[in-house]
Design brief:
The chain is α+β, with helices and mostly antiparallel strands. It has two domains: about 55 residues, no CATH class; about 80 residues, 3-Layer(bba) Sandwich (Hepatocyte Growth Factor). It is about 30% helix and about 30% strand. It contains three helices and eight strands. Strand 6 and strand 7 form a beta hairpin.
Length: about 150
């Protein structure tokens, strides 16, 4: 049984408490009569749990979903074009470029340019498409696996 199904069932039980006011049994669960305040709270909570039962994790933006998977790093490879963002990397760690792409919903690929090729610092290019790969010793690239 999925979490969504359990949430929906629990919400339905709470909603039944709100509507009927208790005084019923469901298998081993016996619900005694409740006050109007408890009925209101049960109704609100029931509606929330029913709503969660309809919630689909795939509807979330990619940046909030469980971690995206990344391809293996392509050493000495450039993916030229498709840039929507670029920035200097102060730490000179490839992981910073790859990790930024991993967390960004728009990012489909990335290229890390090693220090000394486009200036004294390393540079990261985030791409909203997956360009063709070409051999270049200046770069390390990768893609997001969707």
């Amino acid at each position: 049984m999925t979490l969504q199904a359990m949430s929906f069932i629990f919400g339905a039980i709470l909603l039944a408490v709100a509507i009927l006011g208790g005084g019923f049994e469901i298998k081993e669960i016996k619900v005694s009569n409740v006050t109007i305040g408890v009925r209101i709270v049960a109704g609100i909570a029931g509606l929330l749990f029913i709503g969660l039962g309809f919630w689909q994790p795939s509807a979330l933006p990619e940046s909030i979903r469980a971690e995206a998977r990344m391809s293996e790093r392509e050493h000495d490879k450039d993916r030229f074009g498709g840039d929507y963002s670029s920035f200097d990397i102060k730490t000179d760690h490839i992981e910073d470029c790859e990790g930024t792409c991993k967390c960004d919903a728009k990012c489909a690929a990335w290229t890390y340019v090693k220090p000394g090729f486009q200036g004294p610092r390393a540079r990261c290019y985030l791409k909203n498409v997956v360009p063709e790969v070409s051999d270049k010793i200046c770069c390390v690239s990768g893609t997001k696996i969707r």
